[in-house]
Design a protein that fits this description.
TIM Barrel, 15% strand, globular
Length: 382
């Protein structure tokens, strides 16, 4: 098993009480709530946390993309990735951008170019993650969600061809057309950087990612344990229908993780900060999260099931832990919970969210270090 520290970079100084006057912390929350002085300090704090994870032994460090929200301050994750590459230049650690939202860009070739640059700057340490972007992103960018799947697949094909096929060549699609595709620089990794697909439970994602020509790792995120197990099993069944046996390297799990000296200390230190993530930053009304046409009825049902309990009036720490929406405890407890899911699905990619909600810097670094020293060594051989 390998371990990748993940970060959303939320604006944890948000005035939650005042922000509650608005229906969501996405899209419609006025940006006057953002204090640039505090935000500038947060960026450095968060970058230091990821570098700390690399130093204490994580296999990779991960960033992602979101727009117009206090939930995550990375509308341009390639910029954060470039800083992390420089800060870890002497370390054998992967830099994962999981992921770029392909359908909401008007020019996917810029993503092909950016990632090729990052692969060169890191000398082949890049992992590329592609997503459709959650429904809120379509309100932010005015992209028609009806074409989300089409644009994602077409942009993916354009980017991967730009990385692997000698240029110049022409690309003609329904949404993107280029007379000349000739990306400079070329990627260091051959034939291209690894591609991961984060998901919240979409059946279409499984069918597409598991196809024999792709076999992409799918990272199940923000779901109770039973949903993660069900999703991994669905991937396994889909692979069998395609005629091959799945590898544990194709299955991942991303969830908030907090480790302290004991279960009691862990709960005391992180409970309020974990609740702030689920009760504040996750405040997204259905019309923003699932705009018409964004997903099929089947996938919508699966994603709503995966998000079970998150739409309650207020998520309580004990309920979140009991459902498995997070992993909290002493080293033995945390290792046991991860190992239990591994025993059922065989997944090999663990992506702990090392910071969540309002969790402060000192606790983030403490938990990260305990995880690396006292949890990961017990699980690597799984």
């Amino acid at each position: 098993m390998k371990f990748f520290a993940f970060h959303l970079m939320p604006y944890r100084h948000l005035d939650f009480e005042a922000a509650r006057d608005y229906r969501s912390y996405w899209v419609v929350l006025p940006n006057r709530f953002y204090d640039p002085a505090k935000g500038a300090t947060l960026y450095q704090e968060y970058i230091d946390q990821l570098v700390h994870a690399a130093k204490v032994g994580f296999d990779g460090i991960c960033v992602n993309e979101h727009h117009q929200t206090a939930y995550g301050l990375m509308p341009a994750p390639n910029l954060i990735a470039s800083v992390l590459i420089d800060r870890t230049r002497d370390m054998d650690v992967k830099i994962a951008v999981i992921g770029r939202a392909l359908p909401i860009t008007s020019n996917p070739l810029t993503i092909a170019e950016e990632f090729a640059m990052l692969d060169n700057l890191s000398n082949g340490r890049l992992i590329a993650g592609f997503v459709r972007g959650i429904g809120c992103e379509y309100h932010s960018t005015e992209v028609n969600p009806i074409y989300s799947h089409e644009r994602f697949h077409e942009a993916h094909d354009l980017v991967t061809r730009a990385w692997t096929e000698p240029g110049p060549f022409a690309f003609e699609g329904d949404h993107y057309n280029f007379g000349v595709v000739n990306v400079w620089p070329r990627c260091v990794q051959t034939p291209r950087p690894p591609i991961w697909i984060p998901s919240q439970g979409s059946g279409e994602t499984i069918e597409w990612a598991a196809a024999p020509e792709r076999k992409y790792p799918v990272i199940m995120a923000f779901s109770p344990t039973e949903a993660v197990i069900r999703f991994h099993e669905a991937y396994r069944v889909q692979a069998e229908q395609y005629g091959y046996a799945i590898s544990g390297d194709q299955l991942g799990w991303s969830t908030p993780v907090y480790v302290a000296e004991t279960d009691e200390i862990a709960e005391r230190e992180c409970a309020e900060h974990l609740e702030s993530l689920f009760n504040n930053f996750f405040l997204i009304p259905p019309e923003l999260m699932f705009p018409p046409g964004y997903t099929s009825i089947r996938s919508l049902q699966a994603m709503l099931a995966a998000r079970k309990g998150l739409a309650a009036e207020r998520a309580r720490f004990k309920d979140l832990v009991a459902r498995g929406n997070c992993i909290v405890g002493g080293p033995a407890t945390v290792a046991e919970k991860i190992a239990a899911v591994n025993a059922k699905t065989g997944f090999k990619i663990m992506v702990p969210m090392i910071q969540f909600g309002t969790l402060p810097d000192a606790l983030v670094k403490k938990s990260t270090q305990i995880f690396a020293e006292d949890v990961a060594p017990k699980l690597r051989a799984l």
